[in-house]
Amino acid sequence: MNEHREYRFDDFLVNPEAWNLYRDGQVIHLEPTVLKLLVFLIRNRDRLVTREELMDTVWGNTVVSESALSKAVARLRKALDDDSGAPRYIETVHSKGYRFVAEVKETELDAKSPPRASAFVRHAVIAAILAGLLLVLLLLFGRDVFDRGAEQTTGQASDEIKSLAVLPLDNLAGDPDQDYFVEGLHEVLITELSKISGLRVISRQSTMRFGGSEWSLPAIAAELGADALVEGSALLVGERVQVTAQLINGHTDEHIWAQTYERETRDVLGLLSEVAGTISTEIESTLRIPVKARQAAIGPVDPVASEAYLRGLYHLNRFELQSFKRALTYFEQAIAVEPGFALAWGGLAGTHLMLAYYGQESPREAILQARGAALEALKLDDQSFTGHAAMGWVRLFTWDWPGAGRAFEEALRLNPNDSMTLHGYADYLMLTGRPEEGLAQLRHARLIDPFTRLSNMPVPFHLYMMRRYDEAIADIAQMQERIPGNAMHQLLALIYWQQGRLEEALTQERQALAQRKDMELLTALEQGDSHGGPQAAILAMAEAMISRSATTYVDPYSIAVTFARAGQSEETLNWLGTAVERGSLELMDIGFRPEFDSLRDDPKFVELVHRLGLPMQ
Rounded distance, CA 229 to CA 497, Å? Predict the structure, then answer.
């Protein structure tokens, strides 16, 4: 097919040789795939082009989903100012394909002369250089070179990328049994990108809600507060994996960079390090900051171990007790196959911490297990972010405040975008008498992870411990607007109780118990309320919790808090002592919880707080 042709329709000019689309003499920048799609449709305008033919021809050997084709057509229509409902250029034949319907004037160019667009391009480049243009050329593995265009100067705020979201990767196999693999790659890619200094990377938990979304990319970017988005796909076939990634301007929907990678499964984790490194180079050029020395890429891992590791991540992210136990099994399997697999040791440490916090047994053993796994991760890789983060939590839960601070600070140096680590560091700051700094860390964590309860609840809870009750209530209301259905009845019950709004507190308490389906405590509350009012209702709950502890683990600290709300000082102090003996994780809040304000001058309470090395609120 003759390349020395140009195509005119309406006020558009397509010059395939110069690889440009013009409108009224002004260049319209399209990513190469979209321009290739336009040229193919024009050259085959006398017939319907099927979706399958477009995917095979335009993308060549790269396997893509139909959604990728639909998005490319949507971007082409946007560039042409076309309407899918009343098309002037691209007509959709439902479920079959597309047809180019505009009248086209085709002109053959002189093959010996340069393309007529070259003078325009030279002029644009020279002018841009004089204006201080930073033009970034990416050459990856001897393959696609993408010119971002002369109009993108470093001085334009819209081109600066200070925040990024990685959308859920497409599972090209369409096999639900491979969901663990694709979701695991998604998490690893986000973690690798999160290491870029000066860039805010939105958490996986908040981006997952946009998997399969029909929202436009700029709308998703606006919702997440992201300047740029990463889209991609993964395909696992036998012992080979193919990963496609593309970086997109979240404000303009323009493609900045794209690449397809193919590796053996043993190299898949290292592949994601490569992807992150390339995206980092592109983004750091827009941030205009020095590119810091990057951590070493993840080395080859036995495919059986990497599969077990990805399955472990998949279950860890379900945030359910049984899923935590399954994650533990998979991480242990990965380590059994590859004992030097630092990432698996870090995953094991994190899972033990989750079991310590959400489990149904005394947390001491789980914390010891988490400590051992974290130390092994750091022994294998002293730059292990997960190892340092896990050690931060271990030291926080074992009341080693200076050690916790050092571990969290090192973890955040390696990965400044992990919302859980920011939460732990905020707790450390509050516990060492810097509550305002801690609150700022929590608000930053919420920017990274705006749509999960896990990253939203700590802000109003810290406000509650700072006695800023009205602010806490307002924050909860704003969160419920942002995340409908994510009620925080238990925290509201605590706040209302401190404000003396006892009946409102009981209403929230009932709703919290009903939500948890805890009929035993709800019955005790109702009986206590009917016999003696709100305070008797809370006392009845505390006594019911003691009865329950005879057959299953109940955190003694939660029993102490409930007795404190009921005004029972002696019982409160006794159960706080039990909490110390059993290593209750929440005990670190003892110096700040409003429920204990009436005990601040009690010698037993003062001795207990000092024993933990805590300041008193």
Answer: 44
pLDDT band at 3 (very low <50, low <70, confident <90, very high): low
Widest CA span in the chain:
99
Which residues lie below 8 Å from residue 512, measured CB to CB, with a gap of 6+? 489, 490, 493
- Look at residue 243 and give its three-state secondary structure: strand
Q: What Å distances lie between residue 188 and 10, 139, 169, 306, 610, CA to CA?
A: 47, 24, 12, 12, 41
Residue 378, Cβ neighbours under 10 Å: how many?
22
Find, among 232, 331, 312, the residue nearest to 272 by Cα.
Answer: 232
CB 228 within 8 A of CB 283: yes
Q: Is 562 a residue whose pLDDT tops 60?
A: yes
Q: Which of 68, 48, 27 is nearest to 58 (CA)?
A: 68
pLDDT for 548: 95
Euclidean distance between CA atoms 287 and 299, whole angstroms: 29
Evaluate whether 297 touches 259 at the Cβ level (below 8 Å): no
Q: Are 253 and 217 in contact (CB under 8 A)?
A: yes
Q: How confident is the model at residue 110 (pLDDT cuts 50, 70, 90)?
A: low
Strand partners, 615: none
Distance CA 594, CA 586 (A): 14
- DSSP H helical ranges for 398-517: 401-414, 419-431, 435-448, 453-456, 458-465, 469-482, 489-498, 502-515
Cβ neighbours of residue 142 closer than 8 Å, sequence gap 6 or more: none
User: Residue 421 and residue 408: Cα distance in Å, rounded?
Assistant: 7
Q: What is the mean pLDDT of the chain?
A: 84
Task: Return the residue matching tokens 């012992």.
Answer: 239
Residue type, 67: S
Tell me, letter by letter, the H, E, C secondary structure of 409-431: HHHHHHCCCCHHHHHHHHHHHHH
Pairing of strands 105-108, 97-100: unpaired
φ and ψ at residue 340, rounded to 5 degrees:
-90, 20
CA distance linking residue 67 with residue 73, whole number of Å: 10
The neighbouring-strand residues paired with 99 are 91
